[in-house]
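Action item from last week, closing it out:
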Amino acid sequence: MTEMVYGSVPVRDVEPVLPKWWRTIDKWSMSCVLMLFGVGLLLGFAASPPLAEKNGFAPFHYVQRQMFFGGMAMIAMLLTSMMTPNLVRRLAVIGFLVSLVALIALPVFGTDFGKGAVRWYSLGFASVQPSEFLKPGFVVAAAWMMAASREINGPPGLSWSFFLTLMIVGFLAMQPDFGQASLVLFSWGVMYFVAGAPIVLLMVMAGLVLFAGSIAYSNSEHFARRIDGFLSPDVDPTTQLGFATNAIREGGFFGVGVGEGQVKWSLPDAHTDFIIAVAAEEYGLVLVLVIIALYGGIVVRSLLRLMRERDPFIRLAGTGLACVFGVQAMINMGVAVRLLPAKGMTLPFVSYGGSSLIAGGIAVGMLFAFTRTRPQGEIGDILRGRGR
């Protein structure tokens, strides 16, 4: 009777934040992330003492720093995963703009730490790599543009996102950082495909990428050196790829034993880019397969949840974040076994690195926020309804 006289009363969602978050979060994927971080700490105890000794630090200096940055990453992941998709979008766009300005200013204020690529800002006590924070912000911003273009009288979001992608790829190539540039381009292509791009257009874009790669090979000594090393039939045993390949071969199925590996004494990047070689040598193929299964579980479960999502923006942004996460892990491990050219890319949540850990925590937190269960009809119900 009250509703008949005064109208319906809106029902407010009064469920506390933490219980609602725990009820809607993908607990299996979150468990996989925590296990990956635990594996990273375990491998850090094995891989980092030689470098700490070389630089005059305490044996577990880098492990302690990884625990600190990893703790910050876990906090960032949890807080971000509690946000609503709209709040994630707003903060991601702001973070993207800040990271883009930092990326543009790198040639003037950045440093290369003797690695031949200007990718970092040195803060004295730590360093920051803007491209790590740029990726998740770019994925969300591009997804927002693409979703907006599907609205009636919406902006040309597909074109805007495409030109934005080209600009970012250009700045990354100037560092040079072709690995991150390829990830940005890949994430845009995946979202464009999910948004309904024709396969012919994507094939044309793949051809343009190959053409751009040939130009980069002819004009960039850094790029050409890595491609030549990858294509060479013989691997120099004194290079990082040579040490990593030999370590993986020596590890076999069960590994040589905890603490018995030798590659960590030869590889300067054993605790970062080639951490999987340490895992393969000391713990064998068994641990490597476990790591691959953890990454695969996060990506597959996220995509399955996103298949049920009705909101185009959430579906696009979540797909982009999940695919970038999985492909970055695949590239890192592919480089170690010489299936791909050297990229200088970390293994998410396993490799040492402040920027990569914290940015990874933010990115996965965004993914968890997008894949939380929400009260909505299944997208399949909508499609079946249209066919009636």
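Closing note: The mean pLDDT is 84.
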